[in-house]
Specification:
Helix content is 33%, strand content 16%. It is built from 18 helices and 25 strands. Strand 21 and strand 22 form a beta hairpin. Helix 13 runs antiparallel to helix 15.
Length: 627
C-alpha cells in the first residue's frame, strides 16, 4: 500500500489579490511575459531560500507525479528500466506507475511467428503483473492492437489538473537513483516558484544533449559551469511534461491532424525523419508545435558525458540494431556536484533549434535601459529600429521570419504596450515599450493631441529618442516602418554612403543617421523638441518623421541625401505591378502602402514568394546560421 502523503499545516490567511492571480493563471490559455504562477501546493517541501513565501498559498490541489513507461516487445529492456525506477529515492512521496504495453502487429501473425509473439506478450504481462511497486498505484494498460510509438506517447496522458506531472520513459532507458529528487527540486524551482516561473517552459529532459535538429546548426558547446539550460528540442529519453503545455499540444495536434496539416518544417532534420517514417514517430509533430509557440525545455549538462537518464539504444523503432548506452549514469558514487542547487531562471541560457542563443524578456522601458541592449544587438556598429505603429501583427511576424532567414539580428522593435509586444519579447526579440519609454523621459506633454493623433506623435518621438541614444553610444541608426521586407542579408549595412551623415526616404519612410561628431552635435534635446513641435503642423498632410527631420536638418545647414529615386534600393509593390518577381532582382527591400489592404498585400507577397509564414503566423522554415 502506498504511504500517506505528508501535508503541511493549512494556513488560515489568504490575500484576495494572490487568490485572483492564481485563478487567472490557471484559467488563461496564454500569459503575458511578466505573469507568474504562485505555488498552489504547500505539500511540496519548498526550501526557505526560494524567494517569496510561496507556501503561504493554501492547498488548492494536490501535487501528483506519474511515471509513464512505454513498452512493446523488449522484456529484458523493460526489466532493466523498471528495476532502475524502483531503486530511485522517493522519500515518502507517492509516485504512481503506469505501464503501456503495445500489442504485436497483426500483420506479423504468420503461423511460425504467432506462437512466439503470443509468448513474448504473455511473458511481459506476467513480469509487469508480478513487479512490486511500493510507492503508489501501479496501472497496466495492455492494448488490443498495435498502435506504434506515436500513439503510445500521445495517448499516455491527459493531465487531470495543473498540478499533475508526467515523466515519460521508453523501456530501453535506465534511470539514476537520483532522478526523482532532481525532478522534484526542478518542479519546485521552475514551476511553483513565482520568481522562476515562465509560461514558455514545457518540461525537462534528463538525457544528455547531443543533437541539433536545425540543418547547419551550431554544435552543442556549453561551458563547464553550465549545469542547467533551456533548449527548444524535446528529449524522448526521459522527458518530464508540464500539464498545461501538454494539453495545449494535444489540442493543437487534433486540429492539425483533422485538417490534414502535416508537420513539415523546412530546414529541420526531423522533417526528413517524418517523410521517411510518417506516423510511426511523434516528435516532428511536437517540434512543429513548439516552433509555433516559442516554448523551451529544461536540459542538464553534467561533465564527463553523464546524465540522469541513459538510453541503451536497444534495437527497435529507432535503431535497427542495439547501439549501446549513449551516456554514463550519474549516481551517488559519481556525484561530485550540488545536484539540487538550481540557478535563478534569469541566469540560465536559452537556445533555439539551431542551438543559437536566444535572450527572452528584453522589454526596454527607459532611455537608460536602451544602452545595454544596443551593445548586445549591434552589428558593424549599426542598429535597425523597426516601428510597429500601424503595422499588422501578421506582417511583423512575416518580417521577423525574413530577418531570421537573412541572418539580420541587429534590430529592435518599437511599439505600444500590448500582448503582441510582450509575446515578441518572450520569443527573444528585443522590444521597446513605447508608452513606458516615453513616460520615463517625461520630456513632452501630449495631452493636447486627439487620441487619433497620439499614436503618430509617439511614433515620431520614440524614433527621435532612440537615434539620440544610439548616437551617444557611438552607433549608426536605421529607422524604418513595418511595411517593408529585406531582400538581402545586409540591406541596411551595404547601402551606407560615406559621403552623407543623413539619408532619408519619404516612400518608404526610412532614415539613416551616421554616428559622427556633426550628427551628435545636431541631434540634441533642443533638436528633439523641434521635432515634437512640428508634428502638429504636418499631421494633416500625411508627412511624418523623415519629412520633419529633413526640414529641420535643412534649417541646421546639414546635408541629407534623399533616396526615394534610387532604383536599386527599394521596390514598391502595388496591384498594378506586372511580373513582380522579376522586378525584385537587384533590389534591397520591398515596401507597400497599407492603404492597399491586408489581403491584397498578402496576396502580392505570396506571388513574389515573400510570404513565409503559415496559417498560425509561424515561420515555414528554420534557417540556421553558424555563430
Amino acid at each position: 500500500m502506498a504511504p500517506q502523503r505528508q501535508f503541511l499545516p493549512l494556513l488560515l490567511l489568504l490575500s484576495l489579490p494572490a487568490f485572483f492571480l492564481y485563478s487567472h493563471y490557471h484559467s488563461s490559455p496564454h500569459l503575458p511575459l511578466s505573469s507568474h504562477s504562485l505555488n498552489p501546493n504547500p505539500d511540496l517541501d519548498l526550501p526557505s531560500n526560494l524567494g517569496p513565501r510561496l507556501n503561504s498559498i493554501p492547498n488548492l490541489s494536490n501535487f501528483s507525479f506519474i511515471l509513464k513507461v512505454l513498452t512493446f516487445d523488449r522484456l529484458s529492456s523493460l526489466s532493466r528500466c523498471l528495476r532502475s525506477l524502483a531503486a530511485a529515492h522517493y522519500d515518502r512521496d507517492t509516485v504512481h506507475l503506469h505501464i503501456y504495453v503495445d500489442h504485436f502487429r497483426h500483420a506479423d501473425n504468420v503461423s511460425e511467428l504467432l506462437d512466439q509473439k503470443l509468448d513474448e506478450s504473455r511473458r511481459i504481462l506476467e513480469f509487469v503483473d508480478g513487479f512490486d511497486w511500493k510507492y503508489g498505484q501501479k496501472v497496466v494498460h495492455y492494448r488490443t492492437g498495435n498502435v506504434g510509438l506515436q500513439a503510445q506517447w500521445l495517448e499516455a496522458w491527459w493531465p487531470s489538473s495543473d498540478h499533475e506531472f508526467a515523466f515519460v520513459v521508453e523501456d530501453d532507458l535506465e534511470l539514476s537513483p537520483l532522478y526523482y529528487k532532481f525532478l522534484k527540486s526542478l518542479i519546485q524551482n521552475y514551476y511553483y516558484n513565482s520568481s522562476n516561473f515562465s509560461p514558455s517552459i514545457y518540461g525537462a529532459s534528463l538525457q544528455r544533449p547531443r543533437f541539433v535538429p536545425g540543418k547547419h546548426g551550431n554544435k552543442i558547446h556549453l561551458d563547464d559551469g553550465t549545469q542547467i539550460f533551456l533548449y527548444q528540442l524535446v528529449g524522448t529519453w526521459g522527458q518530464l511534461l508540464f500539464p498545461k503545455p501538454w494539453k495545449e499540444f494535444r489540442l493543437w495536434y487534433d486540429i492539425h491532424k483533422a485538417k490534414g496539416i502535416k508537420p513539415l518544417l523546412q530546414g529541420m532534420v526531423t522533417t526528413g525523419w517524418y517523410k521517411k517514417l510518417g506516423e510511426k514517430i511523434w516528435t516532428p509533430w511536437f517540434i512543429s508545435f513548439i516552433r509555433s509557440r516559442g516554448y523551451f525545455n529544461i536540459y542538464t549538462n553534467f561533465l564527463h558525458e553523464r546524465a540522469l537518464s541513459v538510453s541503451h539504444r536497444d534495437a527497435g523503432v529507432n535503431y535497427g540494431k542495439t547501439a549501446g548506452p549513449d551516456s554514463y549514469l550519474l549516481d551517488e558514487s559519481s556525484l561530485d556536484i550540488e545536484l539540487l542547487e538550481m540557478q535563478p531562471l534569469t541566469e540560465l541560457k536559452w537556445y533555439d533549434f539551431c542551438f543559437k542563443e536566444v535572450v527572452p524578456g528584453r522589454v526596454i522601458k527607459s532611455f537608460e535601459e536602451l544602452g545595454s541592449v544596443l551593445y548586445s544587438v549591434q552589428k558593424q556598429d549599426t542598429i535597425l529600429f523597426v516601428s510597429l505603429f500601424g503595422a499588422s501583427e501578421r506582417f511583423i511576424r512575416n518580417l521577423l521570419c525574413h530577418f531570421e532567414s537573412s541572418n539580420i539580428g541587429n534590430y529592435i522593435l518599437m511599439g505600444p504596450n500590448s500582448d503582441f509586444l510582450l509575446d515578441l519579447a518572450r520569443r527573444g526579440h528585443p522590444v521597446i515599450d513605447v508608452d513606458q519609454f516615453l513616460s520615463s523621459i517625461r520630456a513632452h506633454k501630449m495631452k493636447s493631441l486627439r487620441d487619433s493623433d497620439m499614436e503618430v506623435k509617439k511614433d515620431v518621438l520614440v524614433k527621435a529618442y532612440v537615434i539620440q541614444k544610439s548616437l551617444e553610444s557611438g552607433f549608426n541608426s536605421w529607422v524604418v516602418d513595418g511595411n517593408m521586407l529585406p531582400l538581402s542579408s545586409s540591406p541596411f549595412l551595404d547601402t551606407i554612403d560615406a559621403n552623407y551623415d543623413f539619408r532619408a526616404g519619404k516612400t518608404p519612410e526610412i532614415l539613416f543617421v551616421r554616428s559622427s561628431s556633426s550628427s551628435r552635435k545636431v541631434w540634441v534635446d533642443d533638436f528633439i523638441h523641434k521635432v515634437a513641435g512640428m508634428v502638429d503642423s504636418v499631421m494633416g498632410r500625411g508627412k511624418k518623421f523623415a519629412y520633419i527631420v529633413g526640414e529641420l536638418l535643412k534649417q541646421e545647414g546639414m546635408r541629407i541625401k534623399w533616396v526615394d529615386d534610387e532604383v536599386s534600393l527599394s521596390l514598391r509593390i502595388a496591384s498594378r505591378n506586372a511580373n513582380r518577381t522579376s522586378m525584385v532582382n537587384g533590389k534591397k527591400t520591398v515596401f507597400w502602402s497599407p492603404e492597399l489592404g491586408s489581403d491584397t498585400i498578402q496576396k502580392l507577397l505570396e506571388e513574389m514568394d515573400l510570404w513565409i509564414i503559415d496559417s498560425e503566423d509561424s515561420c515555414t522554415a528554420v534557417v540556421c546560421h553558424q555563430s
